[in-house]
Amino acid sequence: MEWINEYQALKRVNPANPFVVPANYFNEMEQQVMGQVRLDAFEAAHSKQEFTIPDSYFEQLTQNIQSRIAIEQAEEEEFIVPQGYFETLEQNIQSRIAIEQAEEEEFTVPQDYFETLEQNIQSRIAIEQAGEEGFTIPQGYFEALEQSIQSRIAIEQNAEEEFALPQGYFEILESNILAKTTLTQQAEKPAAKKQAATLVNMWAKHAIKYASAACFTMVMGTALFLSEFNTDSRTASHKHSYLHKAVSRIPQDEIETYLQLTTDVPSIIDNSDLDGSETQAAEQIKN
Amino acid sequence: MSNQVDDAELLQMFQDEKTRNQAFNLLLKKYQQKIYWHIRRMVIDHDDADDLVQDVFVKIWKSLPGFRSDAQLYTWMYRIATNECITFLNRKKLKNNVSFDDVSHELSESLTDSSYFDGDKVQTKLQKALLTLPEKQKLVFNMKYYDEMKYEEMSEILGTSVGALKSSFHLAVKKIEAYLLSED
Description:
The complex is a heterodimer of chains A (287) and B (184).
Chain A: H1 8-11, H2 25-50, H3 57-76, H4 85-104, H5 113-131, H6 141-162, H7 169-180, H8 182-188, H9 206-229, H10 231-239, H11 242-249, H12 252-262, H13 265-271, H14 276-286
Helix pairs in contact in A: 7-8, 13-14
Chain B: H1 7-15, H2 20-43, H3 46-63, H4 73-96, H5 100-113, H6 121-131, H7 135-145, H8 151-158, H9 162-183
Helix pairs in contact in B: 1-2, 2-3, 2-4, 3-4, 4-8, 5-6, 6-9, 7-9
């Protein structure tokens, strides 16, 4: 402890042990330690004998546990319910109903809503109808519109069916007509030599022009002649007319009286130079 | 102490199963107080020291069949005791989630409150000064100051070179001297 002389403060400290122990501590500690040592020795000696395991126990332990789990899972797979399921089922259902009722209550309507709904709708319709009066339609128009259109279509379809033509009728019409006319005549005259049809302009020849002018002149001259000199035929036709027959049945006295009262009879008689019968009638009137 | 048996003879008795318990009983009588005080100075509290002493000797009982005679028996037992102390203090820090300074403060309080401390004012200051040191320096100082152990023996116990131990002791003494002077 020579080194302590260099440290004066430490040198003043009493080197005696300041710590104390309970009375008779070390004697008891010896017994305690020996007792614990014997206990450990006993446990070490007997633990190996009392707890033995079969050979390869731990090698098979994992497989055995997995097999046991698989068996229990297979047994539980048949329609199992969670533990305490039926005990809480009623409460769960009631809670669900309460929730749904609460959700439904969120969609409320004002008081007397449905009582005034019909009236409100009718008022709205009346307002919209008033705005659309410029283009009114008969009542029930749209309800009958579809039926009307279908009826119209049906009628037109029937009309078309009455005058229906075979398909492609007009395409083969010309060939059919030719077959029954021209081709038939050709078949009847097989010996006739087929000539190519040529179009001849008839007015291109001078002889035809002169002949036509002469015929026209002759016809016109004959018509004038007949109109000037064919008076007998006109008289004859007059005698057979309705007026002549009616006048003939009137008594002569009445005619003369009538003429004297209403007309200038002599002028009529003088101008009457038609045929002999009229002249005789005029002389009879004068007489 | 005159009736104490030599370590070599104790080991020989321990090898014989018939004298094993007797050998251990003799070993316990020979070293129990040295081991206790070594532990007590480190953990301060008597009850903690008591638990650790019992644990240390049970370990010695279990490990003694494998002890190699090339080392000294008492240095081997000191090493076991030292490791148990360090493990205990580290576990206490983790358990209370406190730092080294907080543990030192807690040990200082238990020092003054303990009914198993009979030191005067200066001795109490010395113990408080020791609590401010790192564990390695505290161990070296205690073994040198109280146990008057040689550096070679300390080197065998702590697994540290003699030079490093001298340096640690020199630092520890300087700190303690400064602490004692400042407190005065």
